[in-house]
Q: What sequence folds into this?
């Protein structure tokens, strides 16, 4: 065995220079071969953007494209092991149609940067176009419900008008069967406290569409602008009238007027007058024989907030 080992070692020494030269020659040949630019065929995944996937269903789509690309061996090896799953994205927003043939030649200039191919490399495809077929889904409009959102204001601050929701209409897209089961669209519960300034809040919708595989929303959140104003207290004396009174019933009210304390936006304070308010009791409650009658304000400016009515109930006498 030792003799065989010595013979092998001696043989290697004798041909060492030849072996080294052969190996170096092979390496140089490989490097030269890899450096040569050749035409390779590669398959790339294709994705599409620029259409509303909630509004349209894809019924047919070309999801891959074979490209003939000039590149050297190093680039081909890198693409094989590092970028084999790298795809391209085609934007169809400029021309959304239900059936669209996208010319490959028109998008070749956008393909090279996405695939990280050198700008001076030639790219071509045997396929003239890619096809994308869309089907419009049915839709149902909803006005977002704010009932689960609680806005709490600091003292002497309050709403100066109604909250403004944007967008004011949210569309759900899907099958007629699924959409028929959805009756409303609410905002997720939220509470905001000690509010003193007008502000815009971004609020999420309750994702009722997640109960259905084929329903998608146009948006999953809305913005709500809440107009706020500082308020000033105002006291007004208001005569009481009987709602539904007729000439057959002679009633004397005690007292005949109430004092209403209201909050008024400072910007509207000078525009408020007693004629904008009305207080009443209901004749039906008189006829039912109630001992006292609750008073309610039947008219008041929308920008005001009622703090108190004094007295809140009054007495009466029916004169026969």
A:
């Amino acid at each position: 065995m030792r003799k065989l080992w010595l013979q092998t070692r001696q043989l290697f020494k004798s041909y060492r220079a030849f072996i080294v030269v052969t190996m170096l020659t092979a390496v140089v040949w490989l490097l030269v071969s890899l450096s040569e630019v050749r035409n390779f065929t590669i398959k790339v995944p294709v994705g599409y953007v620029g259409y509303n996937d909630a509004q349209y269903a894809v019924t047919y789509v070309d999801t891959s494209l074979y490209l003939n690309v000039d590149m050297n061996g190093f680039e081909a090896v890198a693409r094989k092991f590092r970028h084999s799953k790298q795809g391209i994205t085609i934007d169809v927003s400029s021309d959304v149609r239900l059936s669209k043939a996208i010319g490959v030649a028109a998008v070749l200039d956008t393909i090279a940067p996405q695939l990280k191919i050198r700008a001076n490399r030639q790219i071509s495809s045997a396929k003239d176009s890619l096809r994308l077929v869309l089907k419009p889904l049915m839709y149902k409009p909803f006005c977002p419900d704010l009932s689960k959102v609680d806005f709490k204001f600091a003292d002497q601050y309050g709403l100066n008008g109604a909250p403004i929701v944007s967008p004011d209409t949210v569309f759900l897209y899907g099958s007629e069967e699924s959409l028929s089961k959805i009756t409303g669209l609410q905002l997720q519960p939220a509470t905001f406290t000690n509010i003193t300034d007008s502000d815009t809040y971004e609020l999420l919708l309750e994702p009722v569409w997640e109960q259905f595989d084929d329903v998608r929303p146009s948006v999953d959140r809305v913005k709500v602008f809440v107009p706020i104003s500082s308020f000033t207290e105002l006291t007004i004396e208001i005569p009481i009238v009987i709602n539904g009174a007729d000439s057959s019933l002679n009633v004397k009210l005690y007292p005949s007027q109430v004092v209403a304390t209201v909050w008024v936006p400072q910007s509207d304070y000078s525009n408020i007058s007693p004629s904008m308010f009305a207080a009443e009791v209901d004749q039906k409650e008189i006829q039912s024989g109630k001992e006292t009658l609750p008073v309610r304000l039947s008219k008041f400016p929308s920008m005001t907030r009622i703090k108190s009515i004094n007295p809140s109930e009054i007495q009466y006498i029916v004169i026969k």
